[in-house]
Amino acid sequence: MEQSMWVQTLMGPSEFELRELSAKTEDDLGDGEVLLRNLAGGICGSDLPFFRGATLPGDQETGRPYSNAKPGFPLHEIVGEVVASRDRSFAVGARVVGWASNMDALSEFVVVRGASLLEYGKDLTPTTAIQLQTLACVIYALEQVRDIEGSSAAVLGLGPTGVLFSHVLRTKGAKSVVGVDRVDRSDVAKAFRIDESIQATAEVWSQSLTEEQRPNLIVEAIGHQVTTLANAVDALAFGGQIYYFGIPDDAVYPFPMMGFLRKNARLTSGFTPASARHDVLVKAEAHLRQFPELTEACVTSIFSYQSAQEAFDVAASPSKGRLKVIFDAAL
Questions:
Q1: Strands (E), 30-144
Q2: Does a structural domain hold residue 17?
Q3: How far apart (Å, rounded) are the C-alpha atoms in residues 7 and 107?
């Protein structure tokens, strides 16, 4: 008898429908792929434009376009149990965390490239392990940044990714970290080692700075709009650097080139390539174990997969006291 699986499908902008489809099996696997039974997932800010109906550039590795109507779309942060494997690194029964290769993790069974996964420690719960994916992205990004130690840093956007940037910057030796967000994040500043939490838009903050207050390192963790990168350039100290992490909704951004030039500034950006994912997931697990307080601080909202509509609605409406929104398949 053919087995079925549950799957959430976007029927239109911001509207999910729970369906049953034929379950994926080992026959669906290519070389280097594994079949996971979904255990947990996390909503990333990069998922939200798709949820709202945007059509953005496709898969970072293959260039193939995404389809908003694809069952299970859009969710890429996943924890799962291996039920079939064509990757020698992962045996059946292993519990793994990483990237759902096709952004289709709103599904009971998911086919994933093994290169984007890590078998995590058995003592971690799935709802703890899911945090390793975001933390791995942050660690990889900051490995591309020079001269963190002793820097005065600012993070624009204190969502679940931005607060992790703050924490990792401080543990890498940043002298101070200022966090800027429209939402009041003073309640989580201490947990994530933010020295000063400022409730303001990036534009208002950048215009308020004296020369002495300008940071020499800025992480733009907001994305999805063209203005905040220009705000970062305005705020930056002479000779400083910007890491642009936020996902762009527009293919081309206007850029204040003259201001950037006259500050002798540096701009870096990128995504975590498949070739680096396993190694940075290892580093993320080590960081979480070194700082276990992050386990309780980051995840604030847990939903069942059957409640995907509510979970995405919550994630799309940032508010004080709310950070990471995740799914637990056990609910």
A1: 33-42, 77-85, 95-99, 109-113, 117-119
A2: yes
A3: 4
Query: Environment class of residue 123 by beta-carbon count within 10 Å: exposed (0-12), middle (13-18) or buried (19+)?
Result: exposed
Radius of gyration of the chain (CA): 20
Same-domain check for residues 99 and 156: no
Mean of the pLDDT values across residues 7-26? 94
Residue 237 lies in a domain: yes
**What does the alpha-carbon distance between residue 257 and residue 233 come to, in Å, rounded to a whole number?**
9
pLDDT of residue 201: 97
Domain count, the chain: 2
CATH number at residue 203: 3.40.50.720
Residue 138 is assigned to a structural domain of this protein: no
Q: Are residues 10 and 124 in the same domain?
A: yes
The model carries a pTM of: 0.94
Q: What is the pLDDT of residues 45-104, one digit of tens each?
A: 999 999 998 876 555 555 565 667 789 999 999 999 999 999 999 999 999 999 998 999
- Which of these three, 220, 236, 269, is where a domain ends? 269
Would you place residue 1 in the very low, low, confident or very high pLDDT band (cuts 50, 70, 90)?
Answer: low
Instruction: Give me the sign of the Cα torsion angle 255, 257, 263, 267.
Output: positive
Range of the domain at 34: 4-133+274-328
CB 85 within 8 A of CB 34: yes
96 burial (CB, 10 Å; 0-12 / 13-18 / 19+) is: buried
| CA 49/CA 47 separation, integer angstroms | 6
Whose CA is closest to 278, among 117, 112, 138? 117
120 and 201 part of one domain: no
- For residue 322, pLDDT over 80 is answered with yes
